[in-house]
Amino acid sequence: MSNIVKHSVSSALIGLGGMLACMAGAHAADKVSYGTNWLAQAEHGGFYQAVADGTYAKYGLDVTIVQGGPNAANSALLISGKIDFYMGGPQGEISAVEQGIPLVDVAAIFQKDPQVLIAHPDAGIEKFEDLAKLKTLFLSKDGYLTYFEWMKANFKGFRDEQYKPYNFSPAPFLADKDSAQQGYLTSEPYEIQKQAGFEPKVFLLADNGYSPYSTMITTTQAMIDAKPDLVQRFVDASIEGWYHYLYGDNTKANELIKKDNPEMTDGQIAYSIAKMKEYGIIESGDSLDKGIGCLTEAHYKAFFDEMVEIKVFKPETDYTKAFTTKFVCKGIGMAMKK
């Protein structure tokens, strides 16, 4: 065989090998679905980033983000096996344990719950406990049954008579200086500034002792048992996505967010990212030296004990079934921080 023919055959074999490798790589990507807890927003940015910049693909994952919203039932889809992961929270997972439903938190993206109470800037409310002086607190039913009970148990002066239902509009609050309303650190204060032209007083419950994690990666015990490697890859890739989103070029991720949620604006996204950084929502506590997503038993137990005190959970509940620490606190992605 001539050298030319040998070279041609060799080149063809190399090309075929490369094609087969690409095909194998494509087939090797595991399809994964992650359900969020609300419409697309910067608070979901790291997950969109990992889709947009190929981080999930690098980990052999083909990820679909299933957007939440007012009519979504993503937690139920996780329970029924229709999605693989969900953006849960410790209260939901501990409640699931009490109902015999094996849901497990495997990462805590938000070290602090972004829940806030918002007051008028000229109402004499300078610190969290001053909120007890107000006549009215506009709260959701869930807020009334959880963190308001926690507030009454830990601060003097809060009383049931303050409660009025929050209808997810700032109008009643704006009309009454002797009131405060609930909100999310990254959204309602921004909307109030836009509508009313003033910067409200904002009090983060987490900075006053309320300790739940938030924006979890939650899955089923069956998934952990059957596919621990897939769970680890999804957690690691998501964490890398969050570092890229916070400290890298997040343009493509934000484009995906706005595609899923056309009402989202660049101004709102920028405000949300700034507040998440300013208040240490993602990077504080254990995550500072162990990486984004870190989840510890001590932190989880502290929240459980708080909820037992206000009778949200039964003291005999085995809260340790609601989480595992084996997939996080490994410093993944920290080198990406600039």
Overall geometric form? globular
Element-level helix/strand string: HEHHEHEHEEEHHEHEHEEHHHHHH
The number of E-state strands comes to 10
Q: Helical element count?
A: 15
Low-confidence stretches: 1-26
Please state the structural category. Answer: alpha/beta
Distance between the termini: 57 Å
Biggest sheet, strands in spatial order? 7-6-8-5-9
Q: What share of residues are in beta strands? A: 15-25%
Task: Supply Rg.
Answer: 23 Å
**DSSP helix fraction:** 40-55%
Instruction: Please outline the major beta sheet.
Output: 5 strands, mixed
Provide the residue-averaged pLDDT. Answer: 92
Domain SsuA/THI5-like: 42-243
Protein name: ABC transporter substrate-binding protein
Pfam family, one: NMT1
InterPro entries: NMT1/THI5 (IPR027939), SsuA/THI5 (IPR015168)
What does this structure look like?
- The structure is a single chain.
- With 338 residues, the protein is of the alpha/beta class.
- The chain is built from 15 helices and ten strands.
- Strands 7-6-8-5-9 form a five-stranded mixed β-sheet.
- It is globular, with a radius of gyration of 23 Å.
- It starts with a helix and ends in a 29-residue tail after the last helix.
